[in-house]
Design brief:
Helix content is 34%, strand content 0%. It is mainly α. It starts with 10 loop residues before the first helix and ends with a helix.
Length: 56
């Protein structure tokens, strides 16, 4: 779906347009907050990423 906006579109009209977009159902999105702080690592994260990239 494509919604064309003009610079003169008011916030109230924009809200109406955004609410008119049908919501997708059936596909679950990743809840990243659920995993925040779970991984415990030792060392500097930047160094770990560099080592992982060097393995490619």
């Amino acid at each position: 779906m494509v919604i064309k906006l003009k610079k003169t579109t008011k916030k109230k009209d924009l809200d109406k347009l955004l609410n008119s977009i049908p919501k997708k159902k059936g596909k679950k999105l990743l809840d990243a907050k659920k995993y925040c702080g779970i991984l415990k690592i030792e060392g500097n994260p930047t160094e770990i990423i560099r080592k992982m990239r060097d393995e490619w």
